[in-house]
Write a structure and sequence with these properties.
The chain has 6 helices and 10 strands. By secondary structure, the protein is of the alpha/beta class. The protein is globular. It binds 5-O-phosphono-beta-D-ribofuranosylamine. The site of 5-O-phosphono-beta-D-ribofuranosylamine has 14 residues, from helix 1, strand 5 and helix 6.
């Protein structure tokens, strides 16, 4: 059984999709803990209700970033994860933390990386006149919202779209591609070669949402 730990900061809808599909598709894996950097992260209640261990490492209690990272890693390592999953985790993690989990640390970002790392991706994409937006699941490197791409979703922009409408349609694809990426990960179906990810069964690493 592969052990998955998920980090969240808020509602945790991606975390919920992963927990649900892990159980309903009987992955050889278990979400063993959900850890948040805020005690009021709404997703914690869902995890607890599913019988999953929860923990809070409040970033406010650790003003120095390196100390927060170290405490977070200490708590996470207590759950001995094979995979560490960032699901709407809104803190930047330092290079030592990222290195510690290298090769087993995944993130989802609501843009077609490498375009639009950082915040407000949908507003920035609309302002740039993008005709399509999307989401990316990637291995995490020390550079923000950067790293080998596991799977992407593409969502066409429609007339009258605003950032909220776009984010709803992109989020629906996130709930498909993040569990998919993780299922591949826990079943050993991902190969990382010279900074590129290959799905070993040749399955498509692209979801196009018409
Ligand atoms: C998602 O759009 C994710 O891509 C981004 O933050 C949002 C988190 O949503 N990093 P949720 O907490 O998973 O519902």
């Amino acid at each position: 059984m592969q052990r998955i730990v998920i980090l969240i900061s808020g509602r945790g809808s991606n975390m919920q999709a992963i927990v649900d599909q892990c159980a309903s598709q009987a992955w050889p894996a278990q979400v063993v803990a959900v850890v948040a950097n805020r005690a009021d992260a709404a997703g914690l209640a869902y995890a607890a209700q599913r019988g999953i261990a929860t923990a809070v490492v409040a970033h406010r209690a650790w003003p120095a970033r390196a100390e927060f990272d170290a405490e977070l890693a200490r708590v996470i390592d207590g759950f001995a994860p094979d995979w560490l999953v960032l699901a709407g985790f809104m803190r930047i993690l330092g290079p030592a933390f990222v290195q510690h989990y290298a090769g087993r640390l995944l993130n989802i970002h609501p843009s077609l990386l490498p375009a639009f790392p950082g915040l407000n991706t949908h507003a920035r994409a609309l302002a740039a006149g993008c005709q399509a937006v999307g989401a990316t699941v990637h291995f995490v490197t020390a550079e923000l919202d950067h790293g080998p791409i596991v799977v992407q979703s593409v969502v066409p922009v429609q007339a009258g779209d605003d950032p909220e409408r776009l984010s709803e349609r992109v989020l629906a694809t996130e709930h498909v591609i993040y569990p998919l990426a993780l299922r591949w990960a826990v079943t050993g179906r991902l190969a990382l070669d010279q900074g590129r990810v290959r799905q070993l069964d040749g399955q498509s690493q692209l979801l196009i949402q018409a």
